[in-house]
Solute carrier family 26 member 6 isoform X3
Amino acid sequence: MARALLGSCALPCCGTRRERVVGTKTGMKEGQVGMAAEMALSHRAPREVLSEAELEEVAQRKPPAKPSVRLRKIRCTGSAAKSLLFRFLPFLYWLPRYPVKDWLLGDITSGFSVGIMHLPQGLAYALLAGLPPVTGLYSSFYPVFLYFFFGTSRHNSVGPFAVISVMIGSLTESLLPSENFLESVNGSNATVNEALRDAARVELVATVTVLTGIFQVALGLLQFGFVVTYLSDPLVRGYTTAASVHVLVSQLKNVFGVSVGEYSGPLSLFETVIEICKKLPQTNVGTLVTAIIAMVAIFIVKELNHKFAAKLPMPIPIELITIIISTGISYGVNLNDKFGISVVGTIPSGLKPPVVPNFSYFGQVAGNAFAIAVVGYAICISLGKIFALKHGYKVDSNQELIALGLCNFLGGFFQCFAISCSMSRSLVQETTGGNSQVAGVLSSLVILVTILKIGELFYDLPKAILAAIIIINLKGMFKQFSDLSMLWKSNRVDLMVWIVTFVATLLLNLDIGLAASVAFGLLTVIFRTQLPHYSVLGRISNTDVYRDVAEYEMAQEVPGVKIFRSSCTLYFANVELYADALKKKSGINVDRLIQKKKKALKKLKKQQKKAEKEKAKRKKNTEDGPGVAVIELSAGESSAPSEPTLRSLGLPQPSFHAVILDFSSVSFVDTVSIKILKNIFRDFRDIEVDVFIASCPGDGCCRLSHGSNLSVGP
C-alpha cells in the first residue's frame, strides 16, 4: 500500500542553489577561506528525510494561542492617545521636528512654483468638469490646505487632476445637460441659462465630492487601502490614457470655437467627434489661432524647462505667463466682441460659506463617486510611493486614503470638486526643492490671494487658452502609448489588459469602462491560475539544483522518481487540470492502466470462484466414497492470500516507483483540492506508485492529513 509523505522540506526545489563560499573581504587569509569552505561542505552533508509527523516531533511546534472570548479592556492611556493622535494627524509628529534651516527655503520656492501652476490648471480643470472657473480655484485651495494636516506624502501635490475632472464632467453632462436649462428669448430663440445651469451643477458636484470623501474615509478606517491592488499598473495606465483621449475630445470645441451637444453613455466620445467634424466649417478662426499660438508657446517653453531643469532655479511659469498676456490682449483688443472668442466671464472674489450638499443625489451618483474615489486614490498612492521610495520615507496607504477622503469630504461643503494628485505639479514640487507638506500650504496661500483679490481680473481670459493648457498637459499621458511595445516584449497578458482597458474606456465611457476593465483584469488572474506551467523536474549534474527537464538539457530525472511541479497554487478552479497534467506528464496512461487492472482482477476472481467450486465438488465426491481421508497440503494455505500485482496480472509496470509533488508554490489548500489529491493518491496507489508531497506549507499539511485521511508516516 502506498503512503503519503507530507515532507515540509523534503525536496530541494527550483529556488535552491549550490552553496559556494567566496572571500569578499580584502586580505582574507587562505586558511579562513578554507575553513569557511569546509563548514559549507559540512552543511551539505546528507541528512535523514523526515515525515511530517517526525518533523513535528523534532521541531516541537508551539501550541496556537487560544482565542480569548472575553472582551479586552480598552484603557485610554496617554501613550495610546498620543499614538492615535499622531496617526490621524501626522503633522503633529513631523512639524515639531521640521528642520527650518535645511528645508524652509526649498519649501518656499517650491510652494510658490506649484502655486502659480495651480492657478491656470485650476481654472482649466474646472472648465473640463463643466463647472464655473472659480470652483477650480476653490479646489486648489481647500483640499491642498487640508492635506497639510492629514497627508503623509511630502512631495504629492494634491488638487485638480485631468482624469478626475473629465469623470466629473461626464457625470454633469449626463445628469444635468445644458438642454435642461433652455429658455426662450423674445418667444422664438432659445438660449441656455448658464447661471442656473452652473448653480445646479455645482450643487451636484459638491454632493459627488462629499460622497467620494465618505467612501475614501470609510475604506481608510476599515484598513481597506489594499483595494487599489485590484487596479494593476497596466490597467491604471491604460485607463488614464483613454481618459486623456476623452479630455482631448472634450476640449476640441473650445479649440475650434464651435458649440456641440453634450453626450453621455457608451459611444458618447465618438458621437462628440462626429458632431465636431460636421461643424468644422463653422470654426471660429480667431479662437483656433489663439489656441494654436498658446499651445506652441507652452509646448516650447515646457521642453526648454525639461532640457535646462538643472540650470534653472525654478521652471518658467509659462502657463501663468500665457494667461496673463492673453487676458491683457483680450481686454485691450476686446476679442469677445470683435472676433467672437469665448471668454471665462465673471470670477467672483472672496470665499463662500459652507453649503450642505443635496442628499437626494446620493442614490444616483453612488457608483460614480466610488469610481472617482478608487481612481483618485490609485493615482495618489502610486505617486506617493514613487517619491517615498526615492527619498527614503514611508507613506501610510490607509492614512493617505483617509487624508484624501477628508480633503474631498470637507471640500465638498465649500463647492470644491473631487481632487487627486497631479504628476506635473508633484514633479515641480520635488525638483524645485520641496521637502515637506509646508510647500503645499504655501501653494494654497498663493491661490487664496488669487481668490480674494486677483480672480476677478481674469474676466476676459479666452477659454481657448485654458483648452490649450489642458491639451499640452496631456503630453505625459499620451507618452503611455509606449507601454505597448514594452508590454509586447515582457508580458502579453498585461498588454491585453492595457488594450482592453483602453478600448473599453473609449467605447463605454469612463464609469462603465472602469468596471469592465477591473472585471477583465480579475478574469486574467483566474485565467492564469487555470493555465499554469506544469513541469517535471530533474537534477542538474553535480549540483543540488532542480530544473524543468523540458527546458534544460543537463537536467536529468532521478531514476524511478517523477518530481512534478505547478507554477501556481491549487484551488477548486484548477485542481482537476493539475491532476490531468500530472497523469499526462507521468508518461503513462494511468486511467487506462487502472481499467486494465480492474478487468484483470475481475477475470481473476471469476477463475478463483471456478476453482473453489471445483475444489468443493472434489471434496464432496471424496466424502461420498470409501473411508479414506485425502488431505491437500498447500504452502500458502495457512496465510492470507497476497494481493495481485501488475506483474502477476501480466500488465505493464510504470518505469517509476514514486511521484513527488512539489508544493513550494502552493499557498493554501481548499476542500475541493483535498478531494482531488485524495483521488491522485488512490489512482497511483492502484498502479503501485508511492506519492509524496514536498515543501508543503504547515497549514496545508494539517488540512491534508485531516481532510483526506492520508497516512502521515516515513
Notes: Residues 1-43, 628-639 have pLDDT under 50 and may be disordered. The chain has two domains: 101-183+191-491, 532-598+646-713.
